[in-house]
Amino acid sequence: MEARLIESREIAPAVRHFEFEALGVERLEFAPGQFTSFTDVIGGKEITRAYSMASAPLGTNRFELCLNRVEPGHLSPRLFEMKPGDRIEMRQPLGMFVLRQPARDSIFIGTGTGVAPYRSMLQAHLHASSPGFTLLFGVRYESHLLYRTEFEAMAIEYPHFRFWPTLSRPDSTWKGRQGHVQAHLAEAIEDRRNLDFYLCGLKEMVDDVRAVLKGLGFDRKQIFYEKYD
Predict the structure, then answer these.
(1) What is the pLDDT at residue 42?
(2) 131: DSSP letter
(3) pLDDT digits 0-9 by tens, 188-211
(4) Which residues lie below 8 Å from residue 53, measured CB to CB, with a gap of 6+?
(5) What stretch of H or E contains 67?
C-alpha cells in the first residue's frame, strides 16, 4: 500500500501536521489510537518507522499524522521534504493502544507528539453522553502545545472534558500548570478509583507515571501505554 501526501503544515517549531490518502482503498479502516508504518530506502537501507494516527477514521481513505523532525533522523527528514502528490510506502494500521470498551472515565497523559493518538480518540469518542476525559498534556514551551485551539474548543463544548496543558519551561506570561505531568496526577485523579489511564510519550515519562500510579494503588489493568525513545 502507498500513501500520497495531500498537504502538510507547520504547527510548532520542527513539528508538522500531515494529511495523506491511502492509495488503492476507498476507506482506510483503523481504531482511534492505532499507528501506521512508513517505509523508505534511506542511504541504501530500508527504514521503517511507526507513527500514531492523529485523526479519527474519516470514512474515507484519508488520514492525518503529527510528526516532529528528528535530527539526525532516518525517516522524518524525508517526510518533512515531501511535497503534495509525493508517495511513500505504508502499512495497514495496527496497535493495541485504543480505548478500552466499554469506555469509562479516563485520564490521557501525553508529551510532545504523543498527543496524536488522543486527538484521534477524542474526535471519535468524545460526545455529550461519553465518559469524562482529562487530557494532561506536557511540553516544554507554550509554542509546542499542539492542537491547543481544538482541545480548548472541545473543553468548552463538553464540560466533562478537561484539557490541562502543562509547561516544564514556561515564560513569565504563562499562568497555567507548570512542571512535569507527574506533578498533576493527584489533582486529575481527585478521589476517584474507577478510572483508566492512557500514557503516550517518551519512555522516561511513561515509566515514571506508571510507577506513580502503581504507588497510588491502581491496578496495572487500568494502565495502557505506548512509549518511544
Answers:
(1) 86
(2) P
(3) 999 899 999 999 999 999 999 999
(4) 30, 32, 33, 34, 35, 36, 63, 64, 65, 93, 116, 117, 120
(5) strand 62-68
